[in-house]
Design goal:
single chain; Arc Repressor Mutant, subunit A; alpha+beta; 4 domains
Length: 351
């Protein structure tokens, strides 16, 4: 139970009650608010004081809603009755659930930080929402743990806003299942100096779209694999000087062309696909694709996409997709499929 509190805290306690106990489906009368004040805050207040403070909250800009009715008094005058008080939420329960699910299914946020963020999101609603989402509180603990993640994001955000370069170490997983900084040919930890332009999410991961300062092409780095980041005093290389960003970063187009966030040029690819893949095609490539030679079973698709990403995607959908052009890409995919088939054919002979 709370210790006795001064009367000047009455309005804050009433606001806290509205936050914890009310929404459009859960409303409180002034009497019920008074009972909670006495039970949980060791504070007594009459209904007139509670009503006055509720109206003061509205005057202060809080979205407090209520129902109003008119009652005839004994002397023949009328009185307005206000009841069914509740606080209108900034987020609906379904919106909060969507945000929480996004955290749970994200692959780049460490377990401890994800759990903390889920708790903060739950705090934006009331006790009824916390009870509703209790069954999704268990999070997988096997995620890689980069405690520098949010600091890295803060530095990158500042660097992008101020047009400054950053330096960092970039990690790869070792056999011990822990991240280790990449090294140069002499065995020293490699320092990456990059020009950051944008942070994006793709396939459940957080990526930095940037330019490795030594080269003139676009690069992508997993944000959760960055460590020891430093904000530098040097200005970034103008995007116009980076191959692929000559006309600026067109983010929707860039994301559609880089399915797996590989670096390299995009090419025009033509492939034959089964018609039942139409949903998948739009999911992966967006709506900037062209169809031709449509039959009841198949269609020809033309799309501009990163060549390395397309090779991986076509292998993923190999039973239902045949790449036609460019010929070089078709040959690479054919060799990869032959190599894979030989492995499985070998297993069948040995069995």
């Amino acid at each position: 139970m709370y210790t006795a509190q001064p009367k000047k805290l009455l309005i804050l306690n009433i606001l806290d009650i509205l936050k914890r106990y009310t929404d459009v489906d859960h409303r409180l009368s002034q009497r019920e608010i008074g009972e909670i004040l006495e039970r949980e805050y060791s504070m007594t207040a009459d209904r007139k004081s509670i009503r006055r403070n509720l109206l003061d909250l509205i005057d202060c800009g809080y979205h407090v809603e209520y129902s109003e009715s008119i009652r005839e008094k004994r002397d023949g005058t009328q009185e307005a009755l206000l009841t069914d008080w509740y606080l209108e939420r900034d987020f609906t329960d379904s919106e909060l659930r969507l945000l929480i699910d996004s955290l749970l299914f994200s692959k780049h946020i460490p377990y401890s930080q994800c759990k903390e963020l889920v708790g903060k999101l739950e705090g934006l609603s009331n006790i009824y929402f916390r009870s509703w989402v209790k069954h999704i509180r268990t999070l997988p603990e096997g995620r890689p743990n980069n405690r520098q993640l949010f600091y890295t994001i803060d530095v990158l955000d500042e660097a992008i806003s101020r047009g400054r370069q950053v330096g960092f170490h970039y990690n790869s997983m070792g056999l011990d299942k822990r991240p280790h900084p990449r090294q140069d040919s002499s065995g020293h930890v490699r320092e990456y100096i990059v020009n950051p332009y944008q942070m994006v999410t793709a396939n459940g991961r957080y990526y930095l779209i940037c330019n490795y300062d030594k080269y003139d092409n676009v690069a992508h780095y997993r944000v959760d694999r960055i460590s020891d980041i430093r904000l530098l005093d040097t200005p970034i290389k103008p995007p116009e000087q980076v191959k692929g960003l000559e006309h600026g970063l067109r983010l929707p187009e860039h994301m559609a062309e880089h399915l797996y966030m590989f670096a390299g040029e995009s090419v025009r690819v033509k492939f034959r696909a089964k018609r039942f893949l139409l949903d998948d095609l739009v999911d992966w490539f967006g709506t900037d694709i062209a169809y031709a030679d449509v039959t009841e079973e198949e269609l020809t698709v033309s799309v501009k996409v990163n060549e390395q990403a397309m090779r991986l995607w076509s292998l993923q959908y190999a039973p239902y997709v045949e790449v036609l052009e460019p010929v070089g890409l078709r040959e690479k995919i054919g060799r990869a499929l032959q190599s894979a088939a030989s492995k499985y054919n070998k297993l069948e002979v040995e069995s």
